[in-house]
Design goal:
Number of domains: 1
Strand order of the largest sheet: 1-7-6-5-4-3-2
CATH superfamily: START domain
Largest sheet: 7 strands, antiparallel
Structural class: alpha+beta
Distance between the termini: 31 Å
Shape: globular
Number of helices: 4
Mean pLDDT: 86
CATH topology: Alpha-D-Glucose-1,6-Bisphosphate, Chain A, domain 4
Length: about 160
């Protein structure tokens, strides 16, 4: 783990705009999640994300729970990030990690995708950095990039 951030990257055979369209649709996050914890978007809001959007997710890691996320970075076809917190009163003391995707076009039809798990604003960052969680998260993010590739690759 580099400081408070774990990152993985992959070159995907698809243009950046196609990948960004998938990432910027909260309703598609369960399709791309490599951890298997994201179940579905919840709430009545628009699933098309933009800077400042908030969206809820039904999650399951052994037991069901809900997360509330706010889009904190948004540059069309280049960068999107959301900060997550546990829904309800517990969210005041649990959460704050940022999930970030940076897209770097390589020509017209390939994109380097960098996914990051940023704990720098997470209330539990010191605990989360311990043990196997950073490496498990790295593995899950690699699986997420694999799923994204399967959904968007031109030749895939």
């Amino acid at each position: 783990m580099q400081g408070d951030v774990v990152s993985v990257e992959r070159v995907i055979a698809a243009p950046a705009h196609r990948i960004f369209e998938l990432l910027a649709d909260a309703a598609k996050h369960a399709l791309i999640d490599g951890s298997g914890t994201v179940q579905q978007v919840v709430g009545d809001g628009d699933s098309k994300l933009r800077l400042g959007s908030t969206f809820g997710m039904a999650m399951k890691a052994g037991v069901p729970y809900r997360m509330q996320s706010t889009v904190v970075e948004f540059e069309p076809d280049r960068r999107i990030a959301w900060q997550t917190r546990v829904s309800g009163p517990v969210g005041r003391v649990v959460g704050g990690r940022i999930w970030r995707y940076v897209l770097e076009p390589i020509g017209d039809d390939r994109t380097r995708v960098i996914e990051s798990w940023d704990l720098s604003n997470d209330k539990q960052r010191m605990v989360l950095r311990l043990g196997p969680l950073p490496e498990k998260t790295r593995s899950n993010m690699a699986a997420t990039l694999e799923r994204i590739a399967e959904l968007v690759e031109i030749d895939g």
